[in-house]
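User: Okay, second chain of the day. Same drill as before: sequence in, structure tokens out.
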Amino acid sequence: MIDERELEKKQDRIITRAGAPSASELLEGSPSYRLVNGVIYQYLKYRGVIYSSQMPEGLITSARKAYNLTNVTEDRSYDADASSTAELADVLGTLIADLRTLGVLR
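Assistant: Same drill. Structure tokens below.
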């Protein structure tokens, strides 16, 4: 079983190569990322068949940008009828901190 921290380290090391891969370059069940005509594609060989999909633009970069938080008090609830801007900011800051813990954000 792979530790989530180990998985994150492995994901940080993904290499994107130029050009579409040949069948012999792909390892069975192991994704390969390639830059083809300015677009990133994911290739996967499964049971001898090559599958490809275009990666959505900005998906990885927007999720990995850092958020800087200050003066956040942990708060996971608020009254939608009576809350202050500061309280909503604390809830948002708590959500961002939780997403960092899960490895979604930095």
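The longest helix spans residues 85-101.

User: Thanks, on to the next one.
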